[in-house]
Amino acid sequence: MRVGIATCRPFGSFAFTLVEELRRRGHEPVAMFAGPISAADARGFRVKHGPYLHPVRLYRHGVSDDDLAIYKRFNGKLVYLNRPFNHPRSIQTIKAWNIDLLLNAGGPIYRRTLIESCGATILNCHMGLLPEVRGMNVAEWSVFHGIPIGNTVHIIRPGIDTGDIGVFFHQNAKGIRSIDELRHTLASQNSTHLATVVEAYANDTIRFYPQQRDAGTQYYRMQERLKQVVNARLTAGYEPDLDISERPYVRPAHA
């Protein structure tokens, strides 16, 4: 199975740790596709290194020694796209790599043409329970509405967080006392949860559950006064109201 990673931050910790988590499970990514952060950055990398850059040749760009060590064990290619991800040229580049699974690691907003034309199943790790909470600040909105917290790994389809659900990794809120701690706890597990689903996908031991498009609510950026309510609930010891014990796609976050 050919696995690729899509990121707008190829030097970010998410991309590095995802490579390592996949390798631990025997799934070396064949390519990491990086959209240009700016046209000048993209031109600079292409002039210096060409369109395909092996990580061993990475020059220091604010990269730690630990992260460089991970990349030196990465046998794939870092592929800088000279257009945004949703541009036809970028889609053709991704398609040419014959990727089976494309993992979102801080990548773009995926438009229909990219989703339907790149030739890969795209997986995302969403910091909230699907289908209930879609969109932005979903960890915070979960606490505000009494919904269990955790990460959902799902297939990306056209629409906001409406793709088939693989696993919801339910996080116990014990010891989480603020929004910052909540977001850090969930974000620190993104790579592990994605890699876990990749392993199950490769072994054909996972079922994906379709969502009804009208089954959830799309949320937007939470206002500061509402964040104060969420912080107070976390400080007091958050217990969700919604029972999800009968849902077949729920697992403990640390199982």
Mean pLDDT, as a whole number?
87
Helix share bin? 25-40%
- Unreliable spans are 49-63
Biggest beta sheet attributes = 9 strands, mixed
Percentage beta strand: 15-25%
How many structural domains are formed by the residues?
A: 2
Plain-language structure description:
The chain is an alpha/beta fold and 255 residues long. It has two domains: 119 residues; 114 residues, no CATH class. Helix 1 runs parallel beside helix 8 and helix 6 packs across helix 9. The radius of gyration is 19 Å and the shape is globular. About 6% of the residues have low confidence.
List its traits.
255 residues; alpha/beta; nine-stranded mixed beta sheet; 9 helices; globular
Question: What's this model, at a glance?
Answer:
This protein is α/β, with parallel strands linked by helices and 255 residues long. The chain is 35% helix and 19% strand.
Layout of helices and strands:
Elements: E1 3-7, H1 13-24, E2 31-34, H2 39-49, E3 52-53, H3 65-72, E4 77-80, H4 88-96, E5 101-104, H5 112-117, E6 121-126, E7 133-135, H6 138-144, E8 149-155, E9 165-171, H7 179-187, H8 190-202, E10 217-219, H9 224-236, E11 250-252
Parallel strand pairs: 1-2, 1-5, 2-4, 5-6, 7-10, 9-11
Antiparallel strand pairs: 3-4, 6-8, 8-9
Helix pairs in contact: 1-8, 6-9
